Amino acid sequence: MTDPKATVSLTIDGRRVHVPAGTSIHKACEAANIDTPTLCWAENLTPVNVCRVCVVEVEGSRALVPSCARAVEEDMIVETDSERVRHSRKMVLEFLGSGVDLSQADELAEWVDHYGADLDRYDQPGLPAQRMNEKPKIQDDLYIRDYDKCVLCYKCVEACGDDAQHTYAIAVSGRGFDARISTEFDVTLPDSACVYCGNCIGVCPTGAIQFKTEFDMREAGEWRPEDQSVTTTVCSFCGVGCNLELHTQDDRIVKVTSPTDHSVTQGHLCIKGRFGWTYVQPPKRR
Amino acid sequence: MADLFIGPDYADGVEIAAVTAAIGDDPAVVHETERLVIGGGARRHERRHLLLPALHALQRAKGWISPGGLNHVSELLQVPPAEAYGVASFYEMFRLDEPESDGAVTHVCVDAACQITANEDLIAEIEAAGGRVHRSPCLGQCERAPARFVQGVGGPDHVPADEVVVERKIPQQGDSALRLLKNIGLVDPTSLASYRQHGGYTALERAIELGSEGVCDAVVESGLSGRGGAAFPTGQKWRAVAAERDRPKHVVANCDESEPGTFKDRVLMENDPFAIIEALTVAGFATGAENGWIYIRGEYPLATDRLRHAIDQCRGAGLLGADAAGTGHAFDIEIRRGAGAYICGEETALFASLEGFRGEPRSKPPFPTTHGLFGEPTAINNPETLINALDVVLHGAAEYRSRGTEQSPGTKLLCVSGQIGRPGVYEVEFGTTLGQVIDLAGGITGSRNLAAVLMGGAAGTFVGPEALDMPLTLEDTRKRGTTLGSGVVMPFTDEIDMTAICVRISEFFRNESCGQCVPCRVGTVRQNETLVQIQRTRGLTAQRRDLMGDVGQVMADASICGLGHTAASAINSALALGLIREAV
């Protein structure tokens, strides 16, 4: 066990940084005001360090190191903007962008620009780069899964399993580029163990899993985030006291999230909080 | 874990019987009454490692894993069906859709050593006769290319080449200088008595005299390093595990030999299985581990049978069990079969696979010596390394160091195949030159000139004819930018289309990437696509060269494990040597 009061000193990009023992390099960078791109990392999930977009160079380590999962060590020397780091981050973004639809991965767009990633250079004449090539799975009225947008960050699997819901309705199946998030034998969600907590929607960074409401509005060209407001309230269904963030557009609720820093939910909800708001507003009449 | 949701499909009698025969029918959780449930998270955790054997049983019974069969196993072991499906779909040997026809499936190798033989004719021949063919990655039978492995349905798997009785098992048969191969052809691999007659189990006796610390010291002093490719000092590994106070501890024999071009461990396991059991027992004694495991690739049925038989005989003779061979120390060995996944030869992926999860490697640190199998302290070695350790224990570090070089002591097994006169496993002292090895193996075949030698397998590099004077040691190969890896030496003459070989190597990595991390999952695909394009158009443009350089660098820098780190090395060396040509 590390002493919770111990402090570790390390050097990040030439600057001396002091953080509590057990802190990740990523958090130490944050403390030093250094922005790090992340994709598979989330505050409320166990790090799986698979996307490799947060890699940094650590002196003495042959390969680059995932900053989200590696704890700081005394006198570690970390480079977050070396040529190797920039190259790897750029390439990871290019790899994802060349095979996956990142059009709704808003956080990544900035980093694509920042590292000058060229998402189109892998298409060759007569041989387009292999893509996910998946059609949206629309199996109920609550949420959809569009795996053409899936970067296989494992977040939904973690939220469905050990990190939040303990339902285990989905897992990674297949291998290599053919790996997909899937139920057993790809059965539909209503036929699976899914309990519709929607925690997978909450953690998905690319819009691969989204509310049916959002999906339909986007399809109809009616999705306008700039016209949306967020109202924080408390769920009215039971006494637990989960905070809800109601996202509204044109005075109608379009989706519901929960703040990841809320002590009760840590961002996770149940079916009632996530989807039980329809009684507030009668179905839209056209 | 919450109560599991299991779908409406049920297993049939054949499937249930097969699973019961493999892992028993003891449920992980028993609902005695509404309030009394026996078995919880801990018991589920304990039984999860039976998932892989259960899936093997289903596959063999029906030729595929049906939804009902998967549900049965999921319920029995309390593994969520989605996770069990994720595990089953990870492996090459498991099918999850019902095959159109019954009967065995013949796996035919399409990797380098077989690619240059008439393997395509063999595939056509089997298909023409109505047989089912699976184009397989390296089957570890490169010395008898083109390699075949028959996956049985309702019956056992077999390798057709095993049915042919070959008189001379290894080319160096009878050479008195052999250390690692000395028993082959001499000891009956099915008889413990024969093994003991030829000095078997004297190393364990000597180990008991030395004490566990003494064994670790001897192995450290010998300078023995791992023979799987990474060359980590074995003694250091054993010492680290011996120093761990956490219990239980494990020693694992990594018999998942899958590096294209590698077959030495198969030859050892098939012909000298008792030595591997003895060596694993010595490792268990030295490290204080009570559990021994053998994880062997699924395509090695003969080696599996021989090891299983050897374990049974040793257990019967008291050499394994509560007081293993009078060590005063409990030690036993379990065998697990892999199911077709190169990545499971990576140590942390092997642990995940054995534990019943997808064979996905994890980041190191922490290292296996502290967090290995089941998160417990583990020493993991391959058969060649283990057999070396027997030699060290028996004859002492000084005697061991009298062979080889200062930095690479001892002898090395080389898997020589490709365009060579007498392909096979050769044992040579470290420091023997590449040219001497090729001569020893009968020289290159054909009248053409040597173009390149693939060193260390698909994860290794090509070297040109100018490297024939290179002494085969860890230090010299490193100096020349190549590697001994798992001991592959595969010569090609200039009549071979090396671009095609490289395309296949890139396809191998594309198929074998576990898919966990982005650099490797996508990088191996982009590398393969670029090479296919170069092959189609014969256009090795500067832009494509840059692209492959960029892809190779991110795989080497940012991948989680060694597969990604080395997925571009053979291709890069081929480019540097000019083997991938603009035009032929």
Structure characterization notes:
The complex is a heterodimer of chains A (about 290) and B (about 575). With about 290 residues, chain A is of the alpha+beta class. Chain A folds into two domains: about 1-130, Ubiquitin-like (UB roll); about 135-280, Alpha-Beta Plaits (2-Layer Sandwich), CATH 3.30.70. Chain A is about 20% helix and about 20% strand. Chain A contains seven helices and 13 strands. In chain A, the strands form four sheets. A five-stranded mixed beta sheet of chain A has the order 2-1-5-3-4, sandwiched between helices. A three-stranded antiparallel beta sheet of chain A has the order 6-7-10. In chain A, strands 11-12-13 form a three-stranded antiparallel beta sheet. The radius of gyration of chain A is 21 Å and the shape is globular. The mean pLDDT of chain A is about 95. Chain B has five domains: about 15-90, no CATH class; about 105-155, no CATH class; about 190-400, Rossmann fold (3-Layer(aba) Sandwich), CATH 3.40.50; about 410-495, Ubiquitin-like (UB roll), CATH 3.10.20.600; about 500-575, NADH-ubiquinone oxidoreductase 51kDa subunit, iron-sulphur binding domain (de novo design (two linked rop proteins)). Chain B is about 40% helix and about 10% strand. Chain B is α/β, with parallel strands linked by helices. The longest helix of chain B has 21 residues, at about 200-220. Chain B is globular, with a radius of gyration of 24 Å. Chain B has helices at about 15-25, 40-45, 50-60, 65-75, 80-90, 110-115, 120-130, 190-195, 200-220, 235-245, 265-270, 275-285, 300-315, 345-355, 385-400, 435-440, 475-480, 500-510, 520-535, 540-560, 560-565, 570-575, and strands at about 30, 35-40, 105-110, 130-135, 150, 250-255, 290-295, 330-335, 380, 410-415, 425-430, 450-455, 460-465, 490-495. In chain B, helix 9 crosses helix 10 (about 235-245). Chain B is built from 22 helices and 14 strands. In chain B, about 55% of the residues are buried. Classes of the chains: A alpha+beta (about 290), B alpha/beta (about 575).
